[in-house]
Write a structure and sequence with these properties.
Elements (H helix, E strand, L loop, with lengths): L2 H18 L5 H8 L3 H25 L5 H21 L3 H28 L6 H30 L1 H22 L12 H5 L5 H21 L2 H8 L7 H22 L4 H22 L3 H29 L4 H28 L6 H45 L1
Helix pairs in contact: 1-5, 1-6, 1-7, 2-3, 3-5, 3-14, 4-5, 4-7, 5-14, 6-7, 6-11, 6-13, 9-12, 9-13, 9-14, 9-15, 11-13, 12-13, 12-15, 13-14, 14-15
């Protein structure tokens, strides 16, 4: 695996910490900004919306720009967005800073994923994406719990300052360690890349990724109040539980990255099924502290176990447009990260309780499973057509002779 891929994974650590750390900061932000917890939860959705919109827009805008220069500009903008969030005097400006940061984060993901995929052979794509996603996993192991600790000890703004500092370190790594990456000999053409959206498999991959991610983050976004208000876990233990989720995510990413290249659909079916089972169990047993804590680990494991396969699948079906394939994957994940917290907020606002967010998440993952089954059937059908065509080609050639 090229060193540049690992540098990208380390950079993603800063991006992922910012994206997910609000899970441990929502109550503090809600109190400081005089808003409800569901309103504070919209900051998570705001970041995700910025990712959804920003990934394809920035992928198109930077299609013909040098990759290394683009990465430098995007990580710089992201770091400045963290500083703006730390200084925000009110909810509106904090909301705006989250969107700006998300746009830069989305562009970095889209370009970074395309660079990583271009640097490895086809049969190592899932492993390359596992390295990048590993940055997210480490963010959940270290970044999110540390953000929660900083929030409890020094105030939630300290967490934003810390991510700004991590972004500066990432910038140094990109400048000094990632080589200049030449543009393709044939310039990318937007019209040609946009054709991937005519493929039903691409659209199915978008929906599967969004539902699988949304189902997990529908519950995870409100994990802190669920632990403290439903399971009655002491607030001081919440960072450790968030870290346990991250440990599960790191283990899941490692396993999924090694298995997905050979058994992609097997990973998708088993991983999303496991997430569904764990979410249902969380909804049923959220009031039992030991069970809720154990399930936090298992949900992190199952969710990130499927992530390399979801990424690789999009590059497989959208291989003719690698830049837009990376952007589409980023948008798909964050479409789920937008819908999940929003749906969780609706459930909470309807006075159904924090545990009900797990029921809503399980409903999303069940839909994802149905679409994986449909995608597998279409894949097998196309494979049979290709096989029959290959078998009949020699016969047609002999007939012409």
């Amino acid at each position: 695996m090229p060193l540049a891929v690992y540098i990208l994974g380390l950079s993603v650590f800063a991006l992922g910490t910012s994206e997910f750390m609000l899970t441990g900061l929502l109550p503090a932000i809600a109190d400081d900004m005089s808003v409800s917890i569901p309103q504070a939860g919209l900051l998570i959705s705001a970041f995700a919306i910025g990712m959804v919109v920003g990934a394809p827009l920035l992928a198109v805008a930077t299609l013909r720009l040098p990759r290394r220069t683009t990465l430098i500009a995007l990580i710089t903008t992201f770091g400045l967005g963290q500083v703006a969030g730390a200084l925000a005097p009110n909810y509106a400006l904090l909301f705006a800073s989250r969107i700006v940061s998300a746009l830069a984060c989305a562009g970095f993901w889209a370009v970074g994923a395309a660079v990583a995929i271009a640097m490895v052979p086809v049969n190592a794509r899932a492993r390359a994406m596992a390295v990048m996603i590993g940055g997210l996993s480490i963010a959940n192991v270290l970044g999110v719990p540390l953000g929660a600790l900083l929030g409890d000890g020094l105030g939630w703004r300290a967490a934003f300052w810390a991510v700004g500092a991590a972004s500066a370190i990432a910038l140094v790594g990109i400048v000094t360690r990632i080589p200049r990456i030449p543009l393709p000999a044939e310039r990318p053409r937007l019209g040609r890349e946009l054709r991937i959206y005519r493929d039903p498999q691409v659209l199915l991959s978008v929906a599967i990724t969004a539902l699988a991610a949304g189902g997990v983050f529908c519950a995870f976004s409100y994990l802190k109040p669920l632990l403290t208000d439903v399971a009655h876990v002491d607030a001081g233990w919440v960072p450790a539980v968030l870290g346990l989720f991250g440990v599960g995510a790191l283990i899941g990413t490692t396993i999924g990255g090694r298995v997905a290249d050979a058994h992609l659909f097997g990973v998708l079916l088993s991983g999303i099924t496991a997430s569904t089972v764990f979410l249902v169990a969380l909804a049923l047993f959220a009031s039992t502290p030991a069970v809720a804590i154990t399930l936090s680990f298992l949900i992190g494991l199952s969710a990130f176990y499927t992530a390399p396969a979801l990424n690789a699948r999009m590059f497989n079906v959208g291989g003719a447009a690698p830049t837009l394939a990376g952007a589409t994957t980023t948008s798909s994940f964050n479409l789920g990260n937008t819908a999940g917290p929003w749906l969780g907020g609706v459930v909470i606002s309807a006075n159904l309780g924090f545990a009900a967010t797990a029921w809503a998440g399980a409903a999303m993952t069940v839909l994802a499973l149905a679409l994986v089954t449909a995608s597998l059937r279409l894949h097998r059908s196309r494979s049979r057509v290709v096989a029959r065509s290959a078998q009949s080609a020699p016969a047609r050639a002999r007939a012409r002779v």
